[in-house]
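Field notebook, page 279. I keep forgetting to write these up properly, so this time I am using the form the group agreed on. The chain and the ligand, 3R-hydroxydecanoyl-coenzyme A, are recorded exactly as supplied. Prediction of the bound pose follows.
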Amino acid sequence: TGKSIKFTYTKKDVILYNLGLGAKRTDLSLVFEDSPSFEVLPSFGVITYNDGSLSQRLAPLLPNFSYKRLLHGEQYLEIRKFPIPVSGALVSYPAGIELIDKGKAAVVVTAFRTVDASTGEDIFYNEQTVFVRGSGGFGGASKGRDRGPATAANQPPPRAPDASIIEKTSEDQAAIYRLSGDYNPLHIDPETARAGGFDRPILHGLCVFGIAAKHVYSTYGPFRNIKVRFAGITIPGQTLKTEMWKAGATVIFQTTVVETGKLAIAAAAVELIGEPARL
Ligand code: HDC
């Protein structure tokens, strides 16, 4: 729980965000503000509440806290207004959900409800999970609560995927993506990356999330919510493969780094709009 967070954005921020997720100059609906179908990619809802205060909020809660040892663990986003406005003024309200002791690591879950600053209308709702290596052992709860689609295991069925999309990220992907508001040096500064235990700067979890969400969106259309677990790191320049399995209104998906064969995103799903929700 903490102070409210203001976020104002224009079509320029929308274009920058779309470029950060690999949009090309030929994707006019993503990069040209006068295109009749100009739109923001639906994962935009995750960048509206980052005021850079994460470190200050977590430090008092966790033993041995170091921002360098923090990784994005999971993300759940609900889109509560369609179509998503391409400019606006929003306010987000943070609320602590869970602090879990995983032994060596701590897992911290925070919710953010984001509304239109002038009308109060709900726009987005997020639950953000961070995984802080070296900050466990404080004796908190060890298992998280079941929060429906926000925590679902989303195991892919044992059959070939119904659809898959492969996209190579740019070596400059993190350098562009960070301009949408996540200035964590882990993604740009080699020295910080080494201090965090990596050979080189890694791609933002939310950039990989946005690219995977784009793959699902371009295949199956708009969704009301999306949940992912960050299962492994991605280095800018690597190739991402998103595999999708559809069952009614639910699309389970996973994203693999093609060069290594390792999962970047697992336990992931969206619930589509325009189809009746599965009971
Ligand atoms: O899964 C490992 C990993 O490396 N994942 C990838 C992490 C990653 O690359 N994230 C994205 C980049 S970092 C980033 O973007 C930072 C960003 O700039 C700032 C944060 C966001 C700010 C937003 C703005 C507001 C790892 C290291 C996470 C876990 O691996 P292991 O240590 O091997 O853990 P494991 O033994 O498999 O499991 C231990 C317990 O932890 C749970 N767990 C595992 N992966 C998790 C996770 N919990 C949450 N999220 C994950 N990703 C396991 O379930 C297990 O718990 P239990 O024993 O109770 O089952």
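OBSERVATIONS:
- Residues 50, 54, 71-74, 102, 105, 107, 128-131, 143, 182, 184, 186, 202, 204-205, 229-233 surround 3R-hydroxydecanoyl-coenzyme A (CB under 6 Å).
- The chain has a mean pLDDT of 95.
FOLLOW-UP: compare against the apo run.
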